[in-house]
Amino acid sequence: MRLEIAVLEGDGIGPEVMAPTLALLETLAPEAGVEFAFRALPAGAGCYRDTGEALPEASLDAARAADAILLSAMGLPDVRYPDGTEISPQIALRMAFGLFAGVRPVRTIPGAPGPLAGAPALDFVIIRESTEGLFASHGRGVVEADRARETLEITRATSEKLFDAGFAMARRRRELGRGRGLVHCVDKANVFKAFAFFRAIFRERAALNPDVAAETAYVDATALWMVQRPAMFDVIVTENMFGDILSDLGAGLMGGLGVAPSADIGEAQAVFQPCHGSAPDIAGKGVANPCAMILSAAMMLDWLGERRGHAGLCAAAARLERAVDAALADPAARTADLGGRATTAQAAAAVAAALTAQPAGG
User: Fold this and answer.
1) Using an 8 Å Cβ cutoff, are 237 and 163 in contact?
2) Residues 6+ positions from 251 with CB-CB distance below 8 Å
3) Distance from the CA of 44 to the CA of which of 29, 72, 221, 362 falls in 20 to 30 A?
4) By C-alpha distance, which of 38, 24, 7 is closest to 317?
5) Element (DSSP H or E) covering residue 283
6) Coil vs helix vs strand at 285
7) What is the pLDDT of residue 311?
8) Which domains does the chain have, with CATH numbers?
9) CB 167 within 8 A of CB 209
10) How much is the pLDDT for 115?
11) Burial zone of 352 (CB within 10 Å; 0-12 exposed, 13-18 middle, 19+ buried)
12) Terminal Cα-to-Cα distance of the chain (whole angstroms)
């Protein structure tokens, strides 16, 4: 099977963490029974600075036609739109392709210095709605002399797809032995009518998925419980802005953005990218942590495998995730953000070595 992967290297450390990730995918391809065709596409702040376009139409069209999209870090602090906002092609991709489900895994990784040392291992998922909520008016907010307005929007059609995705993920996690089949809807339904609407739709979809447990929680309480008793969660579904904030909290519990992968998934396309930014302060120094990018690629393999019924891709995804865990268990493979001294190349080499050391099919 030949798979075309759109590659958006982005800005700052983006190209530095993308290169070893593509090399690892090439290593996995034969055993997975696939051939990857990587197509590099211009996009990002540097592209905007040089051409006046952050996401050229040709890049958008090529990404739309690809089997999946790998996106690295985007944005530079000194390159902005005229209104002062950041260059963010990743948001444009979400809107253009209807990538409503922002998937953010939160799990304990060996060697990552999380703040909950000694606590039970973490393994839950935040699914952030990625096209509506407070981001619905992205680029269209109103700023006046004495006030500014942004509009929160929640629709039934998108919310139903989001919740159904949450129940499907909880069901699959239970089958894989990674969760107990529980979905929490996180909102602020006690204050805002829009969130009461959101919660009501969740309850409707829960009634159609009786084999999966369904609970509700307010976002402020959820932030507290993620720190105090995170093991209570399996799958969290929430609004765009709330998910943006909670997913960074989740990354902090894991040990930092350097080990936090993500996916933005729609009905036809999906984008896989690390949660971290472009880190221009360390760009070019060869010290960036490649693990979030590598784990995002593992999520891509799993999505492609599940979507196409291809067991080899799903197995390759699991192997790559295990290789990252095995590599980071060794302090010599940890980059500075994890308290170590490894370079990007050394960390990636450790993952490659751990991948090779795994028994075939293991």
Assistant:
1) yes
2) 104, 106, 257, 259, 260, 275
3) 29
4) 24
5) none
6) coil
7) 95
8) 1-99+260-362 (3.40.718.10), 114-254 (3.40.718.10)
9) yes
10) 82
11) middle
12) 22
To which residue do tokens 């393994």 refer?
123
Q: Residue 135 has what pLDDT? A: 82
Give me the chain's average pLDDT, please: 94
Identify the H or E element spanning 68. Answer: strand 68-71
What does the alpha-carbon distance between residue 63 and residue 102 come to, in Å, rounded to a whole number?
18
Helices (H), the chain: 14-32, 45-51, 57-65, 89-97, 156-175, 193-207, 219-228, 240-254, 291-308, 311-328, 344-357
Residues of the chain with confidence (pLDDT) below 70 = 360-362
Q: Say what the pLDDT of residue 83 is.
A: 81
The 10s digit of each residue's pLDDT in 220-275 is: 999 999 999 999 999 999 999 999 999 999 999 999 999 999 999 999 999 999 99
- Measured CA to CA in angstroms, residue 275 lies from 12, 262, 282 at distances of 14, 6, 17
Tokens matching residue 150? 């942004």
Chain position carrying tokens 């009518």 = 193
pLDDT tens sequence across 104-135:
999 998 878 878 777 788 999 999 999 999 88
